[in-house]
Amino acid sequence: MTEIRSEPFVVNIGPQHPSTHGVFRIKATVDGERVIDAEMVMGYLHRSIEKLAEERTYTQNIPFTDRTDYLSSMSNNLGYCLAVEKLAGIEVPPRGNAIRVIMAELQRLASHCMAIGAFANDTGAWQTPVMWTFRERERILDLFEMTSGARLTCNYMRIGGVAFDLPKDFVPACRKVIERFPAFIDELHGLLSENEIFIARTKGIGVITAEQAINASLSGPMLRGSGVAWDIRKADPYCGYEQYDFDIPVGENGDSYDRFIVRLEEMRQSVRIIEQALDGLPGGPFRTEVPLALRPPKGEAYARVEGPRGELGYYVVSDGGPSPFRFHIRPPSFINLSLLKEMTVGGTVADAIVVLGSIDIVVGEIDR
Amino acid sequence: MIEGTGPALAFWGLSALTLVSAGGVIVSRNLFHAVLFLVLAFIGIAGFFLLLSAEFLAMAQIVIYVGAIAVLMLYAIVLTPRAGRDNRETWMAVPALFVAVGLAAVLLFAIHDTDWAKSARAYVLSAGELGRELLGTWVLPFQLASVLLTAALVGAVMLVRSPEEERKEEEE
Amino acid sequence: MAATRWWSGHELAKLAQELVPGSVERADDVAAYFRAETLVETMRALRDSDDGDFVYLINLCAADYWSRFEVVYHIASLQKNHAAVAKVEVFDRENPVVPSVVPVWYGAWMQECEAYDLFGIRFEGHPKLYRILLWEGFPGWPLRKDFLSLPGGIQPGLNEFSGTARREPPPVRYVE
Amino acid sequence: MIWLPFLVSEHWWDLRDLGNLSREILELIERGLGSEVAYIVSPLIGFVASFLLFVLPTQLYLGVYGERRLIGRMQSRLGPNRVGKFGLLQPIADAIKLIQKEAITPRGADRWVMWTAPVVFVAPAVLVWAVIPFGPNMVIADLPTGLVYYLAVAALPVLAAFMAGWSSNNKYSLFGAMRVVAMAISYEVALVLALLGVVLFTQTLSLQEIILWQRDLDIWLVFLQPLAFIIYFISASAELNRTPTDIAEAESEIVAGYLTEYSGMKWGLFYGMDIGYAIAAAAFGSTVFLGGWSFFGLEEWVPPWLILIVKTQLFYFVFIWTRGTLPRLRIDQLMGLAWKYLLPLAAVNLLVVAAERLWWKEAELGDGIVYLFAAINIVLAVVLLVGWARALGYRPERVRTRPRLVKEPLGYVPADSSAGGGQ
Questions:
Q1: How far apart are CA A140 and CA A151, in angstroms?
Q2: Do A350 and D331 touch (CB under 8 A)?
Q3: C–A touching, 3+ CB–CB pairs within 8 Å
Q4: Residue A1 lies in a domain
Q5: CA distance B25 to B30
Q6: Are residues A178 and A170 in contact, defined by beta-carbon separation less than 8 angstroms?
Q7: What distance in Å separates the CA atoms of residue D37 and residue D35, rounded to the nearest whole number?
Q8: Domain-by-domain residue ranges, chain D?
Q9: pLDDT band for position A328 (cuts 50, 70, 90)
């Protein structure tokens, strides 16, 4: 019988592509619709932040951390400040910690809104979920603008606390935003998680088992989607997270659908945390004074934060000088991509896009 | 044939279109253009059916030939590796010319020789009668054709089965 | 919900010494320095041991201390919620080679590619080592201390660790 | 022509039936300029009447403007309201913008085929309207095989899309072209079988007679043939590449499918006529299934062509609605849906309709039996749809839509053991 020989055919899901969430390229070798081999090409947005940081003082590096993962600048600032505070042994006043928790959780809500909207858009829901999620995200960005003056790269946290105190009308405004959120999440739940076509498109796509996820050091919704109950806010509480009561959502079979519902559930938990933090907001100073040209003692420190995309770590080595000797960021999006090839090979091109959407990458963080 | 100046104009126009596109099929270098000219020829023939007021036949012609067969031919061309390259002059052209001229002669003789039974009244065949005719007197060829098509379908599926499925069959 | 317990270097060194004798060079209170030859074996032993259970590689990065390169491994256990820091030192600056831990933790492959790309440290045993962030023809390894510092910034690391005198810029030629 | 007694007056000013108006004009020309001129002018009047008066405004304003406003409202945003009052001039502004945009032909593209593809795409979009009846005697060409004519003309845009995809020398457009053809072929089979069910009842292929049949028996075929209507709706939305089956121009996967390399008015034609086909399918659907210009007797007072336009727009609204909310299916799921789900349903539906028809004619039952058939068919449709879906292994209730909530970070805990506050 003559065997039909179809030659494989390389398609660039390239840097300019509506659903690669930034300048990121997958060179997919495709046989018909089936993906045989997927190779990642990245580095288009590499600004060598780690080299620049070695030339700036500790406080001057804070704006860099905003720009690595431009969708969650508050968590990035928090991670870096925790690392330097651990290195220099600086105590943060309780009000500073509470404000940091509120800001980090608000940032998680905004980032997950973006992630869920973009993911639904990748499965083809023609911009409707994106518009809904961006409508809510706008309210949170207004809160950021009210406190830190900027919407996206807030540069709000300082070593030893936060830059400015909360404005008077922040707490009522924040409560108003938070009250609407559970209703909005149920609305999204109705539109997407119970939508047969959405389930058909995302169930069983890009499956990772728990052992695979742990071995590939994935983190965040990727890890929790595969059934591993691991959340830095619970395992290694920082900024007083142990005072707040919240749960960790855990998926079962580690496919794109589970990662989606884990993110949706995490938004509900973040709302709970913010409510508790707003209720128990302590008074007092919001920052301990730290000299501008801070010279922490010689040594190294690794601090980690549960960012929206996973475990966001900062490894800072100081040689006693004004600028860090070595500044390394543990980028969750970058490491979450290590299994991309195993997840996409075998599926169709459409599945590869859905898998990429479920990993929820931010190219600024991948290329640093 | 409906009388009147309009249909006459239409007839000459359509025949010109069909002949030109048939010529185009042979002459065009690019295989893809050849198939497109063929589609144009099919549409021309459908126009002839309309002129003979056999609407159902014209519509069937477009649905079957343009809608299915031409599209499958396009698929075949797209999937074969050397599609789109020009079909070079092959030495086969000379004998092909003789065969073509011979065939044309036979056809012209046949057309000239038979006296076309000019039926008295303009016999308009409606789709309903066509259906009854097809399943009435001509039911045997109709069934044979359907059996043939099913066999072709099964053959096509067997042909395209990927090697793994074949191996799986051998193991069972 | 106690916080993660960070092991001290000595504790990790003691455990590693028990599992694979002769694998530890030295240890200080932050990290344990392993020997490069038996690195993969020790890491696998640490991962599979019961009281160690370091199944999760948090972070892998390199650092350039002028006289030597250091590859830092932060490893952790999820079940026992403790973590430790292991390091490997390489003194050869022309052709630094470190065994790759990808057979132990698959998640290390991208971080090792990045270390190779920015520091020039070859990881032997790595499935596909290539410059992941920069393009193939990039001259030099950007994160090394002797790579031309960007104009206008403070000279990096001219403080306590600085051993050599003024550096000359690397041959900047862009290969088309 | 069928002269129906319901028309109160034959005069041309009676705008309920524009047929009188065109007859008046044709008679005027006949007397003035001779019959050949009238022979040429009559199709022109038909074209002007149907296309420019009914289709283009509804298509432009419903399709381009209406759709963008409606989808805007679905997405809690306003939609175009800047150009002109309430944004009404937006389609014209788009057209002008597209006309003055450069229509790029990429190097290595097949120039001739790329430029003729929009033409082959637009021509059938205009031809489709020749068959749709707007009123008792307001139809350009009342072909006795109107239904098959629609199917024939609906096959041409698939060819045009393939030409566009193949000729623009771009990997994504090749993907788009392959997908368009694969989908069109498999959904046309289901479409034809569904329409066959309708024809079995009405015993005629001409659209005008189908409407009259529905009018005389005072029942719409959507109640008589719910299964055929659902299959028609799904197949029509698949043929037209509208979400949830718009995989030919799936923006998130293959950039813009076969339209990737198109720009300027070339793209504009494709975009405009896409909406033209969608409205044509909506008009055809409402003619065959929703009783065309008849509305249980209302058409004697309300102009019949107005009823048809309202029904088309409601039908089109459903297309907009699905486009606004549903995500896209994958190509192999779509193929599976066509061959494994719609085709058997259409075949069973054909069987049932044939049996009913036979029983109806053999036992000479009165026309009232039609309502009994409608009831049977609706119940049968629901049973078949759900039953066949479950037979194909579709169990929606097994999917856990909420993750397990855990209090303690314990690393990997298999789901069955109840750890922490798992639901």
A1: 9
A2: yes
A3: yes
A4: no
A5: 10
A6: no
A7: 5
A8: 18-392
A9: very high
pLDDT > 90? residue D109: no
pLDDT digits (tens, 9 = 90+) for C48-62: 988 888 999 999 999
Return the biggest CA–CA distance within chain C: 56
Give the mutation candidate from A191, A197, A351 for the D interface (greatest D CB count, under 10 A): A197
Domain count, chain A: 1
* Edge-first strand listing for the sheet containing A299-307: A299-307, A310-318, A326-330
The CATH number of residue A79's host domain is: 1.10.645.10
Contact C79 D410 (CB under 8 A): yes
Q: Tell whether D406 lies on the interface with C, counting CB pairs under 8 A.
A: no
Exposure string of D45-75, with b = 16+ CB inside 10 Å and e = fewer, is: bbeebbbeebbeebbbbbbbbbbbbbbbebb
Count how many pairs of residues, chain A against chain C, have C-beta atoms within 8 Å. 114
Peptide bond into D57 cis (omega under 30): no
Architecture of domain B1-89: Up-down Bundle (1.20)
From B19-33, B122-136, D83-97, D195-209, the region with the lowest mean pLDDT: B122-136
Q: ipTM value of the model?
A: 0.81
Min CA distance, A351 vs chain B (Å)? 22
A64 min Cα distance to partner chain D (Å): 31
User: What are the φ/ψ torsions at residue A275 (nearest 5 degrees)?
Assistant: -60, -45
Query: C78 and D411: CB-CB below 8 Å?
Result: yes
Domain membership of residue A223 (yes or no) is yes
- The fraction of chain A above a pLDDT of 70, given in percent, is 98
Q: What is the pLDDT of residues C91-106, one digit of tens each?
A: 888 889 999 999 999 9
Query: Residues of A with CB below 8 A from B158's CB?
Result: 1
Mean per-residue pLDDT of chain D? 83
Which tokens belong to D379? Answer: 């119940």
**Chain C neighbors of D412, CB-CB under 8 A:** 78-79
Neighbours of chain D (3+ CB pairs under 8 A): A, B, C
Domain with A363 in it: 50-367
Helix pair D343-362, D171-202: axis angle to 10 deg? 10
